[in-house]
Amino acid sequence: MRIARALVSCFLFCYCFFLPVKTRGGNQDLSAKIEAANKIRNDAVAIDSLFHIIRNNRLSAQDDLAAKNNLVFRLSASQRFDESLKLCHDNISLSRQLQQDSAECVYTKLLGITYYFMKQNRQAKIWFEKALAMAEKKGYHQIIYSCSNNIGGILIDEKDYDGAEKPLLRALELMNKQGAKKEELFITRRLLATLYDYQGKPKAAENMYQATINASLAEKDSIYAAYAMTFYADLLWKQKQYAKAIATGQKAIEIERRNNDKNALLTSLILQRKYIIGQRDFKELALLDSEIIAEQKQLFSTDLNKEISETEVKYKTAEIVYQKQLGELAAKKKQQLTMVVFTGVLLLGTLLFVILYQRNRARQQSQLEAEKIKAIIMGEEQERLRMAGELHDGVGQMMSAAKMNLSALEQQLQLSDEESTRKYQQVISLVDTSCAELRNIAHNLAPYSVQQLGFAEALRNLVQKIDQEKLAINLFMDPLPEPLDEVTASTLFRVIQECINNVLKHADAHNLDIAVMYEKGELSVSIEDDGKGFQTQLTGSAAGIGMENIRKRIRYLDGTVEWDSAPGKGTLVAINIPLKF
Question: Are residues 44 and 135 in the same domain?
Fold first, then answer.
C-alpha cells in the first residue's frame, strides 16, 4: 500500500506544473525564476525562494498561479499544513471575487493535495471531487484526469479496488484523447497495474506493464520503458517467475546505466539484489553489493553538493536583501536627520528620537538573535534525524547484508574443527553486536518526535526505554501548558536526555529522580541520582565540557542551570526556564 501512496504523491507533484490558466504569458524573467525555484530539491530553500518571488514582484495571473501552485505542494511536503490551507482558502476567496474560475478550480484541487499529505483521505477526496465537478463544467481536461487519478489513488489506499478502477480508466482514456505527457501516462498506467495486482488480476497487470513498455520503446523513450520493466520484474517475482523477473530487471538496469539515471539505477539494483538472494547466486550478489555501495556513495555525494549549493544561494540572497535593507535604513536615517536640521527640532526631541530608535533597533536585533538561535537548534535536530536515517538505511543495511553473506558462507566453508567454529561464531556475534549498537545510536539520534508527541509524552517514552533493572527512574511531571514552544521543548528534551545518558555512563547510580514542575510561568526541572558524584570545579575535564554545552543551551532559553555534587554524594541538576507565550 505504501507503493500506491508514493505513486499518488508522485502524480500530485507532476501535476503541480500543468495549469489551465487562460491568460497572456507572464514576464519571461519571472517565469524563469519560478521554474528555477521549482527545480530546487531542498523544500525549505524552495519555499523561501517562492515566497520571495511572490512578495517582491508584480506577477501575471499565470505566473502567480504557477508559483503558488508549487508553493502549496512544497508546504504540504514539509508538513507546514496550516500555511498551505490558509494559502488555498485565501486564494479561493480572491478567485471568486475576481471571477477567475480556472484559478478557483486549481486551488480547490490543491486543498485536496494538502489534505492528502495530512493523511486525511476523506477530506482530500471531498475536495478532489469538488474540483472535478468544477472542471467538468468548464472543460478543464487536465484537472479532470488529474482529479480522477487522485481519487483512484485514494480509493486504492482505502482498499476500495472496485471503486478505484473506474476513475483511473476514465483518466487514462481522457489522457489518450488529449495527448497527455508521457510521464502522466506512465504514472496512470502504473497505478492501474498496481490496482490489478491488488485485485488478484496478475494477467491484467502484466498486460498493462507490457503495453507501457511497448509504447515507451515505440516512442524511443527508453527511460520510461526501464521504469516499467523494474515494476514488471517485481510483479513477475511475486508470481514466482524467477528467471523472467531477473532477466527483465537486468534489462532495466542496462538501460539506466546507459542513460546515467542514478536514482532509478539504485532502485533497480536493490530490487535485483532481492531476486539474486532468492536464487542464492552469491557470486552475482557480491558484484551487485559492490555496485550498490558505489552508487550510494556517488548519489550521496551529489545530493550533498547540491544541498550545499542551494544553501549557499539562499544565504547569498539573504545577504543581498540585508545589504539592501541596510542601505534603505541609512537613507532613511539621513533624511530624518536632514529634516531635523531644517525644521529646527529641539535637542530634547532629537535625543528622544535617538533613544526610541535605539530601543527599536535593539528589539530587532533581539528578534534576529532569537531566530538565529532557533535555526541553530532546529538545524541540529534535522541533522540528527538525517544522520540517524543514513545510519539506519545505509550502514544498517550493509551490516545486515554482511551478516547474510557470512551466514551463507558457513555451509560453503564446512568448518570441521571446534576452534574454527568458535572463531566463526565470534565473528557472527560481533556483527550482531555491531548491528544492535548501530540501532541504539540511530534511535538516540532520532527519538520519538517531540513535535509530534509533545514534550511530556516524548519524555515518558524516553524514560520507559531505560532498563529499570539497570537504573530505576522515577518521573514526576506537573500538568504543562502544552504545546510548549518548539525550540524550548526540543532543547529541554535534549538536555534531560544528555543528563540521563551521563548518569548511565558515569554515575554508577541505582536510582534517578526526575521532576518537571510548572508554576507562575516558570518551568523547573530537577534531576537527582544516588551515584558516585563528582567535583563540579573540574571545568577542564570531559564532564566540564558537557556541563558547558548544557549551560549554553539553557542560556539560549533565558534560563539557568546549576549542579550540586561531590564525590560519594550523588548529583543534583536544577534547571529553571521562564516560559514565553
Answer: yes
